[in-house]
Amino acid sequence: MEGEDRLVSVIPVHFTNALEPNLHLHQFPLLTRPLEVPPSAAASGKRIKARLKPKVKRLEVHVPVDTRPEVWNAERSRELGAARVEDDKEKNQELPKVKQREGEEPRLSEVRMRSEQVPQAGVYVLGVLRDGRLHLHPISETHQFRPTLTYMDMYTRKTRRTRGDDSDEDDGPPPDPDEPAPAPAPKKEKKPAGDAKEVQVAVRKTAESQGLQFQGGLTQVRRDMLTMIHAEEDERWEDFEYCGGETSEANEAFESVFSTSFQELECKTDITSMLKDVPGL
């Protein structure tokens, strides 16, 4: 297009960090519908729940399932519900006790969306245009949420035990690819039994500071990974109240994004320095 570009409009920019560091970006790549309670679950008084492990920065959002018969298998939910209860006990992830009728079996009544923190490339900000002014607020953390299905491993193990098939049981961590494969142990010939002798055995511990013992053949990286997994499982969940986008609490937090100050900020960075800091230029 020939001709000089013309100025269309000037938009004042306002910046605030009133909610820092509590403004996060939550992404749900596999969610195909709004994050809300299905009508069938809402009719029975169920709500979305949330909990957090602050040290490892792990969040979970529990969304009630749609229990309509045309989209839900009640028998299957009982099988998977029992597996989830055992999986929670094994990983120290138990929820507060919920009252059940006598003889009632646990059911899979919710989908758990668990977060994974995503490193931010640069500085992320939230921008909202209101009344001809652009309001910016920095985003402290970015998290992606996906359904957690660890209870399926427990269900598979239970099914194999029922069938008597132990061939695929988990025998510990897989072999370390960084270390050479151990040589096959030579077969020993049976010796005639002799007199009993006193033997002293010394047990060597690894990662004593964490109170953990690992199987031999693990590199330091894998030991650190196992230590992190155990630390996360040992940390207790903190329950939070989940507030939907249309609640008064959400509206109050949303209003905090808009700056009420008209004080002009002084820019201390010139255009050359800014361009030099842009990766790839």
Provide key terms for this protein:
single chain; 281 residues; 6-stranded mixed beta sheet; 9 strands; 23% helix
Q: Short description, anyone?
A:
The chain has 6 helices and 9 strands; from the N terminus they run E-E-H-E-E-H-E-E-E-E-H-H-E-H-H.
Notes on the protein architecture:
The protein contains six helices and nine strands; from the N terminus they run ββαββαββββααβαα. It has 281 residues and is of the alpha+beta class. The strands form two sheets. A six-stranded mixed beta sheet has the order 2-8-5-4-3-9, with no helix packed on it. A three-stranded mixed beta sheet has the order 1-7-6, with no helix packed on it. A hairpin with a 2-residue loop joins strand 6 and strand 7. Helix 2 (74-90) packs across helix 3. The model has no long low-confidence stretch (mean pLDDT 82).
Integer-rounded radius of gyration: 28 Å
Find the count of extended strands (DSSP E, 2+ residues): 9
Order of helix and strand elements from N to C terminus: EEHEEHEEEEHHEHH
Number of helices: 6
Shape: extended
Mean pLDDT over the full residue set: 82
User: Biggest sheet, strands in spatial order?
Assistant: 2-8-5-4-3-9
Q: Note the beta-strand portion.
A: 15-25%
Helix content: 10-25%
Q: Topology, please?
A:
Layout: E1 13-15, E2 24-27, H1 39-43, E3 49-53, E4 58-64, H2 74-90, E5 110-118, E6 124-130, E7 133-139, E8 141-147, H3 151-163, H4 220-234, E9 238-241, H5 248-255, H6 271-276
Parallel strand pairs: 1-7, 2-8
Antiparallel strand pairs: 3-4, 3-9, 4-5, 5-8, 6-7
Helix pairs in contact: 2-3
